[in-house]
Amino acid sequence: MKEIQRVVIDPNICHGKPTIRGTRIMVSNILSLIRGGYTIPQILEYYPELTEEDVKAAIDYATAVIEEETILTGTP
Q1: Which InterPro entries match (predicted)?
Q2: Which of 11, 16, 27, 29 would you call most buried, defined as having the most Cβ atoms within 10 angstroms of its Cβ?
Q3: What are the beta bridge partners of residue 8?
Q4: What would the pLDDT profile of 5-50 be if each residue is shown by its tens digit?
Q5: Residue 50 forms part of a structural domain
């Protein structure tokens, strides 16, 4: 997952939230657009400084985080 290297966490940028390297665009911003129905081309139009690989890196990063977490959804 080389693309994930495009995601950085720096306490001096966006309060340490995961961002795309060289930008102040948070992974959560990209995921919110995806949740809202945006396609990758639409996201690139919204954030022209990003590349398709950046968007995929945000998705890969979120996937990796979820795969490493135990998600509690309530009582059975």
Answers
A1: DUF433, Homeodomain-like_sf, WH-like_DNA-bd_sf
A2: 27
A3: 19
A4: 899 999 999 999 999 999 999 999 999 999 999 999 999 999 999 9
A5: yes
Q: What is the DSSP letter of 59?
A: H
> How many structural domains are present in the chain?
1
Residue 6 domain boundaries: 2-68
> For residue 9, what is the domain's CATH number?
1.10.10.10
Rounded Cα–Cα distance for residues 33 and 17 (Å): 17
* DSSP SS3 for 19: strand
Distance CA 18, CA 15 (A): 9
Structure tokens at 28: 């959560």
Tokens at 5, concatenated: 């290297």
